[in-house]
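With this grant's support, we have settled on a layout for protein records. A representative record follows, to show the layout.
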Amino acid sequence: MKNKDNQLELNQIRTTLAIFRKNYNENIPYGFPKASFAVLREFKLTHPSLFKKGDEWSVDMHRKKLMDWLICYSAS
């Protein structure tokens, strides 16, 4: 149970774009598109409601939405 609590806390930590990008690219499933700084900036412009607190990123709030968006963005 403690491990799940620790993972939840890690997922909720707000971080910088650079740290989020590094962690995202290291932990996405094989075959998913990687995130560049340009792509992450475009995602932020496309989803301003996810960034009401400025330029803070978190796995909990952004990872799944970014993965879904990237699949469509990469296909266009």
